[in-house]
Amino acid sequence: MGLVLGKITVETPKYELIHACPDYEIRKYAPSVVAEVTYSPSALGGDRDGGFRILADYIGALGAPRNAKPEKIAMTAPVVTKTSAAAEKIAMTAPVITSGGGGGGGEAVTMQFILPAKYRAAAEAPRPLDERVVVREEAERKYAVARFSGVATEKVVAEKVESLKKSLERDGYKITGEFLLARYNPPWTLPPLRTNEVMIPVE
Questions:
Q1: Under a CB-based contact definition with an 8 Å cutoff, are residues 202 and 173 in contact?
Q2: Is the separation of the CB atoms in 41 and 47 below 8 Å?
Q3: Residue 54 near residue 133, CB atoms below 8 Å
Q4: Which superkingdom, per the lineage (predicted)?
């Protein structure tokens, strides 16, 4: 019932709150280990979230884990996605963050699961059996973060990102990269009770 009502009971990444204002926060995230997959949505029937099953299979969220130990890895939140333009079609042999857009054309999606904090280095995490899954380390990083509820459609996310960029420009922050979308709840959570965030890296 907690999942339907939006209660977040799984591990979430640790961060230091640097600054808070009514429309966003500045956070410094601790180093972490992530599992990610990069794909072209068009190669998965236009499904922007097609990487979820691949990563869920790796950690064993939906059955036997597809890793070399094999070892079940606890699910964490959020699932992070990042969108980026791609000059050419990306093969499914490349890596939750999603990069890439809708079902069409020249965009790529990177979806990322943040692994539990007990994995302090990539070498400590089980080796994926699926070559599309890449396990790597992320260094300490700083993001401007704006939280919102509801369904994170492309239109809504674009509006939230634009609003956050304007706020950062107003307050003199320098943006250093592309935005990420973080989603904390499964799709069956009631939309008004979902927790989503847009995250923009800043100096």
A1: yes
A2: yes
A3: yes
A4: Eukaryota
Amino acid at 5: L
Q: Where are the domains of the chain?
A: 15-30+140-201, 32-138
Structure tokens at 161: 């990102």
Q: Which fold has domain 32-138?
A: Multidrug-efflux Transporter 1 Regulator Bmrr; Chain A (3.20.80)
Residue that the structure tokens 């009971």 belong to? 9
- 3-state SS, residue 148: strand
**Interval 137-196: pLDDT, tens:** 999 999 999 999 999 999 999 999 999 999 999 999 999 999 999 999 988 899 999 999
Report H helices in the chain: 51-59, 154-171
Q: What is the pLDDT of residues 121-148, one digit of tens each?
A: 999 999 999 999 999 999 999 999 999 9
Question: Residue 77 in 3-state DSSP?
Answer: coil
Burial of 203 (C-beta count, 10 Å sphere; 0-12/13-18/19+): exposed
Distance CA 93, CA 132 (A): 5
